[in-house]
Design brief:
The structure is a single chain. It is built from six helices and 18 strands. The chain has 292 residues and is α+β, with helices and mostly antiparallel strands. The protein has three domains: 75 residues, 2-Layer Sandwich (Uridine Diphospho-n-acetylenolpyruvylglucosamine Reductase, domain 2), CATH 3.30.43; 125 residues, Uridine Diphospho-n-acetylenolpyruvylglucosamine Reductase, domain 3, CATH 3.30.465.10; 64 residues, Uridine Diphospho-n-acetylenolpyruvylglucosamine Reductase, domain 1. It has a five-stranded antiparallel sheet. A four-stranded mixed sheet has the order 1-2-5-3, covered by helices on one side. A three-stranded antiparallel sheet has the order 15-16-17. Uridine-diphosphate-2(N-acetylglucosaminyl) butyric acid binds next to helix 4 and helix 5.
Length: 292
């Protein structure tokens, strides 16, 4: 029997993904599942992967570009209440993978728990942020992770400690496993200080990045010793346009998408940038965003 028949109440087919991503672009997911428990999640992953489907977790869609013809597989969203819990335990916090990172950073900052304040202005779910070790100049989420509970595509659940997660610049060992929950170690301090830092980091970000426009944050990783934004800027590419997508005039590592942009326009711009930066500096830019 088709795996999908067993999960009818948690599953939809041919679901538009555009409104679920920051870029607001791209086609449909063949399947979208919102499991209610970790057990359901493990079952669905195992059955779908066993049927040969590609499986992806979608957080807040802050770092994903969906192609125009959509994603021919199963997309999982951790929207059920059990994946959205936040429990404080002294200076630790136990948090579900589906929690919004900005909400969490704001809540912990208000309580005088430092560590996530430095991530102010970074959109995403806790799970997505951990997977890519989201961060910026002031810190990265991996710095505060004690352990993470993951479900893999064989339906196995395991808890992995910080050292086995291999946090590195915008990467970790999470891979295609799904972050169900995490324990974060924060630091008690005067709430006024933490909240003030949260606001300063955010203001700093708003001043240097086109946060009001449709984008997916930085498109490329910074190559070792360089800023991708500075390289793209020096290659004279700010303002370059393909269709309705353009390289931001505010920060050159952002592609901003007007209405009616196609994902293919963004992909063409990405190719142009890579080619020009390679020709000019001999440096190959690596994508930071995930293309589905
Ligand atoms: N610069 C330019 N032109 C530009 C953009 C930047 O000359 O168009 C120069 C800046 O003036 C600065 C240098 O490049 O001298 C570095 O720029 P910035 O301080 O903006 O930092 P970044 O390296 O471009 C990184 C992260 C951001 C994060 C910021 C601030 C990456 C790829 N980018 O940007 O993260 O917000 O630091 O902490 O790691 C993201 O991950 O989506 C992201 C935006």
């Amino acid at each position: 029997m088709m795996w999908s028949n067993d999960y009818k109440d948690m599953l939809e087919s041919n679901v538009p993904l555009a409104d679920k991503t920051w870029f607001k672009l791209g086609g449909d997911a063949r399947w979208l599942a919102c499991p209610r428990t970790t057990g359901d999640l493990a079952d669905i992953c195992k059955r779908a992967a066993g049927d040969g489907l590609s499986v992806r977790a979608l957080g807040r869609g802050a770092n994903v570009l969906v192609r125009d013809d959509g994603f021919d597989g199963l997309v999982i969203r951790l929207d059920a209440p059990c994946f959205k819990t936040i429990r404080f335990d002294g200076d630790k916090v136990h948090v579900g993978g589906g929690v919004d990172l900005m909400d969490l950073a704001h809540q912990t900052s208000r309580k005088g728990l430092a560590g996530l304040d430095v991530l102010a202005g970074i959109p995403g779910s806790v799970g997505g942020a951990i997977r890519m070790n989201a961060g910026g100049r002031h810190g990265q989420i991996g710095d505060v992770v004690v352990s993470v509970t993951l479900v893999d595509l064989d339906g196995q659940t395991q808890t992995v400690a910080h050292d086995a997660l291999a946090f590195d610049y915008r990467s970790s060992a999470v891979g295609r496993r799904i972050v169900v929950s995490a324990i974060l170690q924060l630091r008690k301090e005067d709430p006024e200080l933490t909240l003030d830092r949260f606001h300063r980091v955010w203001t700093d970000k708003k001043a240097s990045q086109p946060l009001a426009e449709k984008s997916a944050g930085c498109i490329f990783k910074n190559p070792p010793g360089h800023s991708a934004g500075a390289l793209i800027d020096q290659a004279g590419l700010k303002g370059t346009r393909v269709g309705n997508a353009s390289i931001s005039d505010v920060h050159a590592n952002f592609i901003v998408a007007d209405r009616a942009t196609r994902s293919s326009d963004i992909l063409t711009l990405i190719d142009i940038v890579r080619e020009r930066v390679h020709d000019r500096f001999g440096i190959d830019l690596e994508l930071e965003i995930d293309v589905w």
